[in-house]
Every structure is written in C-alpha cells, then in structure tokens.
C-alpha cells in the first residue's frame, strides 16, 4: 500500500508504541486467547448485522454484554447496567458496571476503562457480503474490557473503584461517551483517570513498542504504564496519532473535556486496511496478541488502583 493511502486510513481510524520485559501473569484467571475470541466472535458475527446504533443487532449485543457483567458479579452503576439515551428517534444505551475499591478512602476515586461496542452496520459489497462486522473496530476493544471486568470481579485487587463502560454511538460522533461524561460530571463523580481501548486486534508493524496512547504528550500516562510494567517499550510515541489528532477521535475525549483529567485511548492499530469495510472479520485478528495486551493491562490497572496518591497527571499545557 502506498504511504499516502496509509495516512488517509489513519486519519479516519478514530473518527467516530536494552529494555526490561514483563512476565505475563499465568494464573488461572489470566486472560486467554480463546476468551477474547469468544466475545469477538459473538459481537462480530453476521447475526448482529454490524451493530449499528438503534438496530436489533446492537440490542442483542447490549443484552449479551449485560449478561456477561452480571455473571461476573459487577454492580450496575445506575438502576440497571444500561445508561439510556437517544440518537435522533432511536434508543441507545451504554453498558456500565463497576467494582468497588477495597480501600475505605481510595474507593471514592474511580478509574474508567472503556471501549465502544457499536459499529456502522453495512459497508461496501465484497463477494456478496456488505455487513461491516467491526471485529477490530471495536469488538476487539470491547472483548478486552469484558475480560478485564471478569478478572477484577474475581481478583478484587483494586483499592480504587473501577468502572467498566461499553459505549454506544461512538460511530455517530462519540455520542455515548458524551452522554455519560456529562451525566457523571453533573453528579460530581470523582474521576481519577479514564483510558479507552480501541482496535487492539493486531500487533503494530515494524515498531519497537507494542501499543500507543493517543494524546501521548498530554499526561504522564504513557510513562507510568511503562513504569508499572517495568517495560520501557510497551507504550511508544506513534507520530501519526499526534499528526492526525487521534486523541479527539474516540471516547476518551469527552471525559477530558468535562473532567480535565488524564483521559486517553490505547490502540495497536497503525495500518488496518479493513477499517469500516465488510472485510473487518473475525478471522483477521490475532487473539494471542489481544490476550497479551489485555494481561498487561491487568497489571497496569492494579497498580493504578493501588497507588496511595494520584500518580497519573496532566502535563502543563
């Protein structure tokens, strides 16, 4: 692919990175490739018809995700797991659960871990298939959040409270995250930081780091993630994310605007030719890679939730 075409694709990816190594946890409740694949396979199946906001497919996806949260033992933050809002005349809903922190003081501070589970419905016709399944965008990120929620519901190692959010209507202009952020801000929600997971289905190409955070220079989140893992090459500076301001193109952004706390998106997508195409299918993804990234996020969330002070802060702007 020509370099210019790669740049164009990257512009739209978020519309809507000698070093020490870390030993990935191998306990029985660690995340496995089969676990994340199971979630992706359900969400990105043809039966859900591309999970467009307001569709029967996204209703089925939300029901599935609610049942997952309930089976893990997450508490609904609101009356139910659904955070309801409207997109024009259509019903839409974020799926929201949380795990209360174990520390009497720190539990009042929240970390939000999010991903959008909606997609665009239909796209180009290739071999009589026009369903935009959205496996990498963003069933992959959703599967990561679901796996993290399951882990922490079992491990209960978080001293701060952790909210797990699956956003809808990201593809309509970040509408689900805007709705929830404004709602939480109005109730004086105590947000420490927010990080979002977007398109982690494949490893980065020809990079000496594993992932990147949008808004890399806006806070010390990248440095702290690497410090928590004792791996200086986990998060790196991805110049194209800076060039095309991907910080503003996913569900982290409304939380930054409303709360002015570190709110960034983690991704491993640097060149995905099936973005918003019918070719974004289940068989295109690397599930061992996804499990590896998710297991490292377990370590990061544990350390974020256990630090005596708020170590992740915004840089001077």
**Considering DSSP H and I runs of 4 or more, what fraction of the residues is helical?**
25-40%
Please count the beta strands (DSSP E, at least 2 residues each): 11
Going by CATH, what is the homologous superfamily? Zn peptidases
Q: Round the mean pLDDT to the nearest integer and report it.
A: 92
- Helix-strand topology string: HHHEEEEEEHEHEEHEHHEH
Question: Which fold does the CATH topology refer to?
Answer: Aminopeptidase
Count of alpha and pi helical runs? 9
Cα-atom Rg, whole angstroms? Answer: 18 Å
Please describe the biggest sheet, giving its number of strands, its sense, and whether it closes into a barrel: 9 strands, mixed
- Give the domain tally: 1
Which regions are unreliable across 5 or more consecutive residues at pLDDT < 50?
A: 1-28
Kindly report how far apart the N and C termini lie: 37 Å
CATH hierarchy, class? Alpha Beta
Beta-strand residue percentage: 15-25%
* Overall CATH architecture: 3-Layer(aba) Sandwich
Category by helix and strand content: alpha/beta
User: Given the C-alpha coordinates, what overall shape results?
Assistant: globular
């Amino acid at each position: 692919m020509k370099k210019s075409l790669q740049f164009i694709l990257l512009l739209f990816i978020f519309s809507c990175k000698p070093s020490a190594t870390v030993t990935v946890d191998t306990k029985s409740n660690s995340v496995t490739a089969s676990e994340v694949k199971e979630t992706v396979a359900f969400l990105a199946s043809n039966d859900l018809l591309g999970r467009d906001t307001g569709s029967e497919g996204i209703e089925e996806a939300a029901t599935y995700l609610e049942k997952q949260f309930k089976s893990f033992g997450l508490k609904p933050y609101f009356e139910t797991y659904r955070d309801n809002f409207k997109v024009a005349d259509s019903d839409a809903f974020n799926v929201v659960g949380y795990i209360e922190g174990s520390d009497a003081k720190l539990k009042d501070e929240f970390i939000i871990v999010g991903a959008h589970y909606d997609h665009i419905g239909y796209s180009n016709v290739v071999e009589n298939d026009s369903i935009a399944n959205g496996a990498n965008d963003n069933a992959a990120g959703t599967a990561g959040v679901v796996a993290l929620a399951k882990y922490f519901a079992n491990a209960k190692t978080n001293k701060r409270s952790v909210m797990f959010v699956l956003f809808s209507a990201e593809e309509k202009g970040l509408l689900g995250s805007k709705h929830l952020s404004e709602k939480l801000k109005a109730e004086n929600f105590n947000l420490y930081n927010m990080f979002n997971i977007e398109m982690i289905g494949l490893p980065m190409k020809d990079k000496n780091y594993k992932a990147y955070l949008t808004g890399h220079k806006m806070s010390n989140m990248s440095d702290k993630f690497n410090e928590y893992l004792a791996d200086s090459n986990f998060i790196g500076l991805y110049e194209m994310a800076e060039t095309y301001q991907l910080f503003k193109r996913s569900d982290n952004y409304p939380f930054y605007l409303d709360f002015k706390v570190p709110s960034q998106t983690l991704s491993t997508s640097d060149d995905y030719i099936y973005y918003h195409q019918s070719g974004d299918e289940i068989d295109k993804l690397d599930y061992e890679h996804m499990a590896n990234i998710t297991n490292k996020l377990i370590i990061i969330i544990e350390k974020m939730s256990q630090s005596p002070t708020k170590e992740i802060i915004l840089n001077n702007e």
